[in-house]
Hints:
Low-confidence stretches: none
Shape: elongated
Strand content: 15-25%
Distance between the termini: 59 Å
Number of helices: 7
CATH superfamily of the largest domain: Elongation factor Ts, dimerisation domain
Number of domains: 2
Order of helices and strands: HHHEEHHHEEHE
Amino acid sequence: MVDIKLLKRLRNETQVSLADCRKALEETDNNYEKALTWLKKHGLEKAAKKAERETSQGLVESYIHQNGRVGAMVEVLCETDFVARTSEFKNLAHEIAMQVAAMAPRDVDTLLKQEYIRDSTKTIEGLVKETIARVGENITVKNIARIAIGE
């Protein structure tokens, strides 16, 4: 029997589907920490299965640092315009644009390998894979650009 309080907490914290949260708790005998690990592993497996799907929709996101001296633009793609309009996808694109402005990666491959500026336990690639697991579609970072005064 799944603990409803743990189920709600897991769902709110991870934003993973209710069905996956329930399965994680069932598989781990209501152990919250083990359920988080199970979801992470399961999410990475889901992302790997979706990696070959075509990404032809998405959005271009920009970020200008507060002082107006650094700006970044990113093109982040997904499979459908429905997902491209979700707050989850828009937030991912914004976080990636902030990462590009802050860390100045030379290309997309370098960006994906960087530590995420908000959580050093994750890479940008890991952040993308977590979002893939939540939205259920393949996501790719297609292009990045950064402009800074004096560089």
